[in-house]
């Protein structure tokens, strides 16, 4: 065997400075802000219905829906301008001693306890933390039994944490946020996208009333109302069949069309 081959140096690729100092551990807000797509999908400017700013709205409203499903609060009030969102429910209100934690500590929430939330839209403990981290202005306020606790954040960092005060307001939770324009470039909320989202919340939660920018949305019959809205009665083969149980709801009918899609 050729001794020169045995002695030939092995070619290596430069590591470009990859060493222990290259390994970083991010805190919760840094990770969300650095990789927002993992939490809310695409960023966008609000011109598409699935842009991230609408996911932020959904995350806040979902908490209100969970309170309604558990039997607390039949009304949600939503006010949205081109850049700011305000959502108020009349549920139980966040426990006052945990108001800061539930919006700023990842994997923290009441939905891990099946006694408190038998049914819930969100279970991963991220929701409002992502909203908080991705907002230049974020306020959470909880009212429980004559006491109100609020906290203010900016980009996920706590900037104001006053002590609870007495109040005559009804129990429930208020959240106000403004998406960070350094992440969401030139964004604006389009009312039509929001209205469509709110209508579906009502169809899926019969009896829930949502007041959105002064307009009231409510569905008395749930999915049956959805089919009524989406179909023309004259084109149906038979009246809508509507069945509803404790954990299931069904609305069914057929049209006169033929083909692979209905």
Report on the architecture of this protein.
By secondary structure, the protein is α+β, with helices and mostly antiparallel strands. It has two domains: 28-218, Heat Shock Protein 90 (2-Layer Sandwich), CATH 3.30.565.10; 223-252, no CATH class. The protein is built from eight helices and eleven strands. The strands form two sheets. Strands 1, 2, 3, 4, 5, 6, 7, 8 and 9 form a nine-stranded mixed beta sheet that branches. Strands 10-11 form a two-stranded antiparallel sheet.
What is the alpha-carbon Rg in Å?
24 Å
Number of helices: 8
Secondary-structure content class: alpha+beta
CATH architecture of the largest domain: 2-Layer Sandwich
Write down the secondary-structure element order: HHHHEEHHEEEEEHEEHEE
Major sheet details: 9 strands, mixed
- Mean pLDDT over the residues: 86
Overall 3D shape: globular
Per the CATH scheme, the topology name of the largest domain is: Heat Shock Protein 90
Please report the distance between the alpha carbons of the first and last residues.
Answer: 75 Å
Strand content: 15-25%
Flag low-confidence runs.
none
Total strands: the figure is: 11
């Amino acid at each position: 065997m050729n001794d020169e081959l045995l002695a030939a140096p092995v070619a290596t690729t430069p590591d470009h400075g990859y060493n222990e100092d290259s390994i970083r551990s991010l805190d919760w807000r840094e990770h969300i802000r650095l990789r927002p797509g993992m939490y809310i999908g695409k960023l966008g400017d609000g011109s598409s219905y699935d842009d991230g700013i609408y996911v932020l709205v959904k995350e806040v409203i979902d908490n209100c829906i969970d309170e309604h499903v558990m039997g607390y609060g039949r009304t949600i009030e939503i006010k949205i301008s081109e850049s700011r969102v305000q959502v108020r429910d009349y549920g139980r209100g966040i426990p006052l001693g945990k108001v800061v934690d539930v919006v700023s500590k990842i994997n923290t929430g009441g939905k891990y306890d099946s006694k408190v939330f038998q049914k819930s839209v969100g279970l991963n403990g991220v929701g409002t933390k992502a909203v908080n981290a991705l907002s230049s202005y974020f306020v959470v306020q909880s009212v429980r039994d004559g006491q109100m606790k609020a906290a203010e954040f900016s980009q996920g960092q706590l900037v104001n944490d006053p002590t609870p005060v007495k109040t005559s307001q009804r129990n429930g939770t208020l959240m106000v946020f403004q998406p960070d324009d350094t992440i969401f470039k030139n964004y604006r909320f389009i009312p039509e996208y929001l209205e469509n989202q709110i209508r579906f919340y009502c169809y899926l939660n019969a009896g829930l009333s949502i007041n959105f920018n002064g307009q009231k949305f409510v569905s008395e019959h749930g999915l049956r109302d959805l089919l009524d809205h989406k179909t023309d009665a004259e084109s149906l083969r038979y009246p809508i069949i509507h069945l509803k149980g404790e954990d299931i709801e069904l609305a069914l009918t057929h049209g006169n069309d033929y083909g692979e899609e209905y």
